[in-house]
Structures are given as structure tokens and as C-alpha cells.
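Workshop exercise sheet. Pairs work together: one partner reads the sequence aloud, the other fills in the structure field after running the prediction. Swap roles for the next sheet.
Pair: D.N. / O.F.
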Amino acid sequence: MSIGQRIRERREELGLSQAELARRLGVSQSTVGNYEAGISSPNGENLLRLFDCLETEPNILFQDSYRGGKRVLSGPERALLERYRRLSPAGRRTLQSVAEALRSYQEEMEAEQPAPEPKVIPFYRSPAAAGYAAPVFGEDYELHVLTEDRPQGAEFAVRIQGDSMSPWIPDGSVVYVNRDPLADGDVGIFCVDGAMVCKQYHKRGGTVYLFSLNRSRADADVVLPESSGRSLVCLGRVMLRGFPLPEE
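Structure field:
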């Protein structure tokens, strides 16, 4: 016999209706119906009240739940229930009041937890020449809130102008950038001799290649031999992956 069936059986033995038992427990009649149907189980506070209202012991209601290796209540929980049963009626009411107060306090604390602050990153909007990324860092920017549909690891955003990275990064689009190390084939934001470019990174031997994804704009590639003497700084990795390197 299930716990729900034993609740119903004991309620009927006492001549109580579902509505009367619900009133004594301080719950709705449908809640009692759910207990008896096995749809839900009473929580710790209602469980204590249930033993009182049904004038029964935990072992009576749960006797079938410990067969076959099953266990509904832990050892400490059963010991706590036994201590509760030894309390006077006044002591039980006091304990129930304390439990209710603690639960209300916990619910209030959980309700008062502030929603996590959204992440805010710099968004550099001023465009540059074709194939170039804004900004020259240090110029003005506005703060950009990262909504849930944006890469949460981004540390700044830039707007791209030009078609050398299209169609994957169209003219005028915004890219999100983090500080992760670049792997071969990643797209990054680079400063080359003071100019900001958005390109695909590749290094072979001592030469760094910054490729345009749009191969019809191979004229916008940047090739930096080790002996070139030109300056190159990587400002971050564009949070896009999966682009094959150009064929040799």
C-alpha cells in the first residue's frame, strides 16, 4: 500500500473528509487529493502536521516504504520526527510556528536576491577604411550591455567597415572580441603599424599572414615577414571560429 493510500485509509478511519483534513493542515483540498493520489508528497512542515491530524506514527504511514531496500526518510529525519512526537501539544505548535517563520524568512531572502547585473563592455562605433576595424583605442566609446543572445565572454565590441571579411563578417556588422590567445586560423583584431584591421591569423615560419576571408579582396591581405620591421599587436580574438585558411 502506498503512502497516499495509507493517508486516505487513515483519514476515512477518523471520519474526516478531504476538505476537513485540508483545513486542519492549512492546505487546499486539491493538495490533500494530490497526496492521496501520489501526485505529490507533503513537505517537512506539513508532514509533521499530518501525523498530528491523522493521530498516527511515522512508522504507520511509511511502513511499506522501507521494504525492498527503499527509504523515504533518512535516519536523522526519522530521529527528528520521533523527538517531535515526544513534545507536548504546546511544544509542537511552537515548533510549527518556528518552522513557518523560518520558511517565510527563507522565501523572503530568496525573493530579495537581486538579479545578476548584466555584463557591460566598451563598444567602439566609429568606422574606418575598408577592411579596417574601429577604433584606434583610446578614442571615445559607449557602453554596450551584453544580452543573453550575445557572447558572454566578450570584453569589447567593434564595428567593421568594408567587404574584405564578407560574407562572414559583413560591412557594418558588429563583432565581439575577447582576450583569448589566437590559434592558427582564428580571426582577430590587430594593430599593424598603428592601423586597426580585422583579419584571419596564420603564421608559417617567421612570417605572419593576416588574410581577408573574402578572397576576392586578397589585395587587402597583410604579410609581415619577421625581418619586415613593421609593428604588429593582437588586440583580441573575434568570437567566431571555423574558417578554413586560404589554399596555398
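Discussion prompt: The chain has two domains: 3-112, 120-238. What would you look at next?
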